[in-house]
Predict the structure.
Amino acid sequence: MAREIDEAWISEAIDRHRHVEQLRDDCDRAVDSHHVSVHSPDDSIEVIVTASGRITDIRIHGGLQHRNPVEFARELQATVADAAEAARWAREKLHDEIFGKFRSLGEA
């Protein structure tokens, strides 16, 4: 039994695939360019991270002379961990903004 080829369905599937690829490229660009700033509880440390999780800057506010090195290292590590969580959150938000309006094949 020969199957009929639905040229219109194939064409639409190809167009949708191209559209998804474009959306994915847009999402990748947005994730790489979106920055999130996270501060330590006392605002002495600021970590700037992209939504992809790449740390672009760490800023120390105030002097370090009177800081306990172990305590400072712990606070820096906690702030970097918070920045990683903020990057994950930003990635999810960007993904939802870009792909949230995309309708599935079942909705076509």
The beta strands are 35-39, 45-50, 55-60. The radius of gyration is 22 Å. The first helix runs from residue 7 to 33.
